[in-house]
Amino acid sequence: MSTSIFDRDLPKTQANYQPLTPLSFLARAGAVYAEHTAIIHGSQRFTYREFYGRCRRLAAALAKAGIRRGDTVSALLANTPAMLEAHYGVPMAGAVLNTLNTRLDAAVIAFSLDHAETRLVLIDTEFSGLLKEALGLMKGPRPVIIDYVDREFVPDGKRLGSIDYESFIANGDPDFAWAMPDDEWDAISLNYTSGTTGNPKGVVCHHRGAYLVAQGNVLTQQMRKHPVYLWTLPMFHCNGWGYPWSISIMGGTHVTLRAVRAKAIWQALAEHKVTHLCGAPIVMATILNAPEGEKTKLPHVVEFTTAAAPPPEIVLARMAEAGFNVTHVYGLTETYGPAVVNDWDADWDRLDISARAAKKARQGVNYIPLEALTVMNPETMERVPADGKTLGEVMFRGNIVMKGYLKNRQASEEAFKGGWFHSGDLAVLHEDGYVQLKDRSKDIIISGGENISSIEVEEVLYKHPAVQGAAVVAKADEKWGETPCAFIELKPGMSATADEIVEWCRKGLARFKVPKHVVFAELPKTSTGKIQKFKLREMAKEV
Amino acid sequence: MSTSIFDRDLPKTQANYQPLTPLSFLARAGAVYAEHTAIIHGSQRFTYREFYGRCRRLAAALAKAGIRRGDTVSALLANTPAMLEAHYGVPMAGAVLNTLNTRLDAAVIAFSLDHAETRLVLIDTEFSGLLKEALGLMKGPRPVIIDYVDREFVPDGKRLGSIDYESFIANGDPDFAWAMPDDEWDAISLNYTSGTTGNPKGVVCHHRGAYLVAQGNVLTQQMRKHPVYLWTLPMFHCNGWGYPWSISIMGGTHVTLRAVRAKAIWQALAEHKVTHLCGAPIVMATILNAPEGEKTKLPHVVEFTTAAAPPPEIVLARMAEAGFNVTHVYGLTETYGPAVVNDWDADWDRLDISARAAKKARQGVNYIPLEALTVMNPETMERVPADGKTLGEVMFRGNIVMKGYLKNRQASEEAFKGGWFHSGDLAVLHEDGYVQLKDRSKDIIISGGENISSIEVEEVLYKHPAVQGAAVVAKADEKWGETPCAFIELKPGMSATADEIVEWCRKGLARFKVPKHVVFAELPKTSTGKIQKFKLREMAKEV
Asked: What is the ipTM of this complex?
């Protein structure tokens, strides 16, 4: 490459180059929107000045507690102010935030804490029992425990640490001079995903991607200044898809909810004039199925962003009637959450309802910060024809793709083979370039917005003394989207009932992963002995 | 720095790292908004498919013409489709776009072409005379000339090259596989600024900054999908402040105007349902002073972004009445245009009109993509107290600060001294952190949105045989914002009239730089002989 006059004497300096990080958004909001309400949690209110101050206190307290650059801080928290503060305070200390799914079982939590080499845990006392069990199962050194007591909602939770969160951050300086990341490629968060194997993989995200996806959300949702965001999406899902960072960009207000309950949602929508919320289809079902007395007329169209499964026709119609505009997005933990959006063409409004629903069911096109999205034959790495028929694997490329899997070079290299992130999801490409998912090659079941690895469930089933063969597939479910349906072949001369199998699974799996249906049958196999899951999916429909 | 588990085996790959460039915005819009109107120019219409295709054709044609990475392509164009295409097609060829101010004189154009080592010029035939004269003054090799003939508006312009723009790009492949920049730090544009010395300095901007400022505009203007943007701001000013790139992000429509004329503006506002436009105060004056018959009732509030001078109280009131919301921004060519915004607090709406105007007159706070903005004592590099009184120099830091000045290492180093970009503008810091300009240490006069270096005008005056001393200051002007006012001391025994002096200046300066007022007087000086310009500014008020 020859150099030109533009390659000479024009180096990066502190004046013209700064790492991209979403921490900058809060620093700006803390100054420009100082008196605007940043967080509403029950009867609590925090302005941006307070929010920024509390995040700096947390960072300072973590530094005092010995947390250093590149250390992991785990959070087992509900959607609370502490969880929002962790999204800024932990990286302000140079550390990496590892949010844990509060619905998982203790064994998986223990595995994550060990694998992440967690130095400190922020624990919501509602989940003390779960953490205590997990600490007992850990192999590595025990982390420091900080108890977060949500006084309004969980005053009586059990303490595990020696200090509570408020006392901990009170020791930190609200003017703490936090440092920018050394490099925008530095890790900001670590999210464990249930993959195809029993052990979860640690998805590492960086400051650059977090900055870009946060702006991508604002642009895609066409947010104006001071949005009001309702937390129906758990922040332990891909860092709440980046919204803890997005909302600071426009000086918005977070309305935090510990749990997805219809009454609290409708109350918040009316009282706080919510403009945006996100969630799996189960959240829409909860909203729509509220008793009529709990619903209110919305003051304006509320933007609802959904992922995990295409919104069904009837749900779309009822959401529109209730005053919501639904946007369908798609992504993976590996892509910071949403990396694909069903970018709605206003012309489609003129279609009839089922044609509209068919358009809305498509996953869509690349998010603004995603460089490229395509569907390819994973063997040849050639793009499939845009015919709406030819199956291929969905591939991503760009700055909102993870750094890789933690301590798993092989998995990272496989995931990035050929310069594209291989999603494992199978899809077609429509004539207009929109992607539509057709199947998941990784056999993931998505129930109530949670990913369930069919293989993880099968492993538990295989351990049952009477089980000879087992296969788990998704069965469509009106409420949960999908539920796991288990097909079992018993060993000759052995017997077991469906109830016994369910009971067995409850001992070894988080509650939401336990099969809702158990069918005893011969498993259909290919000539080479591979179980034909597509046949089981057909059979599951009839159950 | 100790390494952590997050520093291991997590390298950048093509899958998870791509250079930030605004070229990506057009690639996405070309696919997702293919049939949406991208450009309206007179009776011409281009969809995004066509716009993207024409940019690729231009890139391909440039490559065929021998343009290589890091070469300069200059554009002496009005606000036309070709100018928009140059903003994408030139960097798609790996080249650097140097837009030239069509209002400058031939000597400055010649200097720029020589200094930029321009390989090819895109010339609007309206300006053939200017370019011809400039080519005659050039010292370096003559660039290739491509004539852009705006058939609807300037059918009879004189051709200088051997091929016209449409034929040139027709030779390029609309599917040309353009390359992403090697690095997001690569130069995308070169803009000459009139500084304190006679010779302009070449401000080099990079892809990363262009990407970020383009998103910053959308976020700051709270643009929704498919905005309609009216080109009243010349694209040769800081690349139209980045809007040629911003509009692609949201799939918006550009309405290009060759000249700022009231009738055409009001027609476009009504006919195309314009949502956004930008300009110096002169554009607001033009809009407001249109004959009543030419004005129309606007279908919605139109966002007007103004820079160069604080909008006066009466103008704000009249703009609001006419249906515009005015946002005040501030920046320099060195900061990609707008890097500071008067972020409006809704509470200020309750103030009376003059208090509102006083709030609006403040330049404000850092733009979302600007890391930091402050006012410092340039000697000590200490922040001035936020008391609204203490003067200091406005300093910028962040990713929308230029790479530096082309072939001028010393000027770049001075500009970035201490890790901050020194703007040369003097300001105070208010208690709420808002910056307000008080004076310009570089003695720049801003007339009709154009920067005039007082020193450049003085140099011409000093060459007049009768002039002993000369000083030029800004004089407030209702129409132009400011105009140059010259104070002259004649040599003993010599004489000259004001008309003779104006005539002299016309020969050596672009028309807009010629002093509107000439005063013969003794120049007030300090004890060390420095001319006291603040006293002249007071005297100019009385002229």
From this structure: 0.89
